[in-house]
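Hey team,

Filing this mostly as a record. A colleague (T.K.) asked me to run one chain through the structure pipeline before their review meeting, and I want the input and output archived in the tracker in case anyone asks later how it was produced. No errors, nothing strange. Just documentation.

Input sequence:
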Amino acid sequence: MLEITNLCAGYGPIQAVSSLNLVVRQGEIVTLLGSNGAGKSTTLRSISGLLKQKTGSILFEGKEIQKLPTEKIIEKGISQVPEGRKIFGRLTVDENLEVGAYLVKDHKVIHERKEQAFALFPRLAERRHQKGGTLSGGEQQMLAIGRALMQSPRLLLLDEPSMGLAPLLVEAIFEIIVKLNREGTTILLVEQNARMALQVAHRAYVLANGRLSMEGKASDLASDPEVQKAYLGG
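Output structure:
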């Protein structure tokens, strides 16, 4: 579904990702692990067109997308849940979801997708007329995911979805990730909580200083001594 070849990307003279090769197959949850500054978010931003790569190619369903503007990439079926949620604090839950559907022209479809988001996150349904900025951190994360789902993506990019959440809410968010995947959404997950990420993922890649250092089945990496020492407190 997604194939990245020799990706090099960065900010000005700073190269955050170097010669990255990565594949996400349809139906998978793939997690991208690494310490802060390893290049994980840069990779997601490159896929979604928010950051233009310096060299390399990004193929989605067999077609190059690295030169497309973000809205065209979204139209093709890729949505991103950004790090820090970035919901619109002055807009209501309802309005935030509608912003996520800005490329959808059919009002009936927008209504149906909102109802699907509320079915997935009943807490949001209870707060649909509440301003986004008044929600708790967990509710804002639910809203950010719901907003991304308004485009009915085939590939969902999740950037640190558990950041700053209480353990119970972290479990709830990961349950949603698994549910979405079982219902047909392919997921590329960037996550500091490596233990949880490796529990739900099919495969994993580890980045170090912008370069790929390890890859394999998530279960194999979870039992690898080097990964345990660096990311699992082993």
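Quick notes for T.K.: The CA atoms of residues 33 and 206 lie 5 Å apart. The chain has two domains: 2-77+153-231, 87-152.
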